[in-house]
Design brief:
With 212 residues, this protein is mainly alpha-helical. It has ten helices and no strands. The protein is globular.
Length: 212
């Protein structure tokens, strides 16, 4: 038996009986959306002016970025669940959300006068953002880590970080519906910090939660 056959055998042995990898991911994804939604609607809810906010480009742009992040990180996570996964081919997809955000920041700096940059970056709810994106993302992160246990990632910490990134994308998408700060400057600063916290937590948590 060569190395590749051995790795495949170990991956097959590691999967829990009665639940396929595909079913584990579908269950984790559905559960992540449901639990994140419950936390969001119980603790926050949409912003009062959401009906008028959806008519603005800045508000909608937040969802373009967060959904792109959640989708790309989830795809990368599923690949990372297998031994010796080739994550390099997913790198372009993981770059979509950051590139969109950079483009949004550049346009914001062009459109706004320089004396308004600081106020838009600081916003009005930075502490709330740093609190609730991680809070909303905790349950999705736990489910993604549990789903990873049905695979056999050769780099658990990297896989866990991707789980945190995906959870952060899901959480940020929900939080964006409440957040009154729509500037790409705010999103690039505070959303990024909050999502990084979940990414770090996922990487550290995978050290004990994901073993094979």
């Amino acid at each position: 038996m060569d190395t590749n056959d051995l790795i495949k055998a170990l991956a097959a042995d590691n999967r829990r009986p009665g639940l396929s990898m595909s079913a584990a991911w579908k269950g984790a994804a559905a559960g992540a959306l449901v639990l994140a939604g419950l936390v969001f609607f119980i603790m926050l809810g949409p912003r009062p002016d959401i009906a008028s906010a959806v008519e603005t480009v800045r508000f909608l742009f937040k969802f373009v970025v967060t959904v792109a992040l959640a989708a790309a990180a989830s795809a990368a996570l599923r690949v990372a669940a297998w031994p010796e996964a080739e994550l390099r081919r997913l790198l372009p997809y993981l770059c979509i959300a950051p590139l969109l955000l950079v483009a949004g920041v550049v346009l914001e700096l062009i459109v706004l006068p320089s004396d308004a940059w600081g106020a838009r970056l600081i916003g009005t709810n930075s502490l709330l953002c740093l609190t609730f994106i991680p809070l909303i993302g905790l349950a999705p992160l736990a489910l993604f880590l549990l789903a990873l246990r049905h695979g056999a990632p050769s780099r658990p910490m990297l896989s866990g970080a991707l789980a945190g990134l995906a959870a952060g994308g899901v959480a940020a998408t929900f939080y964006a519906a409440h957040c009154p700060d729509d500037s790409p400057l705010f999103v690039a600063t505070w959303y990024t910090i909050a999502i990084f916290g979940l990414t770090l937590l996922g990487g550290l948590g995978a050290r004990w939660a994901v073993r094979w």
